[in-house]
């Protein structure tokens, strides 16, 4: 599996450090509050479990499962809601935890959905931001790393459902997806 990786962008140690520093920022922002922290499945699974443990604040956690890539390196353009949260977020402070913001379509869908439900505030924490991929105008409040315009995998991020279990984030060799 490691042979499919062109280069490592962020090691496990760099990711751990980013989680610590984001956790400190988030703790300050939510001091005295009890946000609902929503992890976006499946990509954000590992980041979510690391980030919530780095935050010193009362919180509720929940998960939402959305999908738009379907085995490709380009967004299908349509965000499908596969599984909703169980928490009533009306009047609540919501923190969305994402692995990556690329076109921004997934995040826009989530921001609109949670705003329609009457969230008191909505903030976004993403490990990776790929500004060159943006198709819709959305922004993250807490960002780990800005990544170049390349398809990245590992630490939850997949290509065709593979590579999520890599402990680091790397760039996939183009021949892996070119031959599909
Ligand atoms: O900014 P965007 O272009 O919308 O891309 C970002 C989204 O794409 C990926 O999810 P995907 O749809 O691949 O589902 P997954 O998390 O289950 O892999 C990723 O986990 C983000 O949620
Ligand atoms: O670069 C990426 N890698 C994996 N999943 C993604 N979803 C959006 N962009 C990416």
UniProtKB/TrEMBL annotation:
Predominant place of localization: cytoplasm
EC number annotated for this UniProt entry: 2.4.2.8
Compartmental location: Cytoplasm
Known pathway: Purine metabolism; IMP biosynthesis via salvage pathway; IMP from hypoxanthine: step 1/1; Purine metabolism; GMP biosynthesis via salvage pathway; GMP from guanine: step 1/1
Domain Phosphoribosyltransferase: 13-159
A single GO molecular function term of this UniProt record: magnesium ion binding
Catalytic reaction(s) noted: IMP + diphosphate = hypoxanthine + 5-phospho-alpha-D-ribose 1-diphosphate; GMP + diphosphate = guanine + 5-phospho-alpha-D-ribose 1-diphosphate
Biological process terms in GO annotation: GMP salvage; guanine salvage; hypoxanthine metabolic process; IMP salvage; purine ribonucleoside salvage
Annotated Gene Ontology cellular component terms: cytosol
Principal EC category: transferase
Required cofactor(s): Mg(2+)
One Pfam family linked to the record: Pribosyltran
Main function: Purine salvage pathway enzyme that catalyzes the transfer of the ribosyl-5-phosphate group from 5-phospho-alpha-D-ribose 1-diphosphate (PRPP) to the N9 position of the 6-oxopurines hypoxanthine and guanine to form the corresponding ribonucleotides IMP (inosine 5'-monophosphate) and GMP (guanosine 5'-monophosphate), with the release of PPi.
NCBIfam families given in the database record: HGPRTase (TIGR01203)
PANTHER family, A to Z: HYPOXANTHINE PHOSPHORIBOSYLTRANSFERASE, HYPOXANTHINE-GUANINE PHOSPHORIBOSYLTRANSFERASE
Family note: Belongs to the purine/pyrimidine phosphoribosyltransferase family.
The protein, known as: Hypoxanthine phosphoribosyltransferase
Organism this protein belongs to: Lentilactobacillus kefiri
């Amino acid at each position: 599996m490691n042979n499919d990786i062109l280069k490592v962008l962020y090691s496990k140690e760099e990711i751990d450090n980013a989680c610590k520093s984001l956790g400190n920022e988030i703790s300050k922002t939510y001091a005295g509050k009890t946000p609902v922290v929503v992890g976006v499945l499946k990509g954000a699974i590992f980041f979510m479990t690391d980030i919530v443990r780095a935050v010193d604040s009362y919180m509720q956690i929940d998960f939402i499962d959305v999908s738009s890539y379907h085995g490709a390196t380009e967004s299908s353009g349509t965000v499908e809601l596969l599984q909703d949260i169980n928490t009533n977020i009306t009047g609540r402070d919501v923190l969305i935890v994402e692995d990556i913001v690329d076109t921004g379509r997934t995040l826009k869908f989530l921001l609109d959905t949670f705003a329609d439900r009457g969230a008191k505030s909505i903030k976004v924490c993403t490990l990776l931001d790929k500004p060159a991929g943006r198709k819709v105008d959305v922004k993250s409040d807490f960002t780990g790393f800005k990544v170049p315009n390349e398809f990245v995998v590992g630490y939850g991020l997949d290509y065709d459902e593979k590579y999520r279990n890599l402990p680091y984030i790397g760039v996939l060799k183009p021949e892996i997806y070119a031959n599909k």
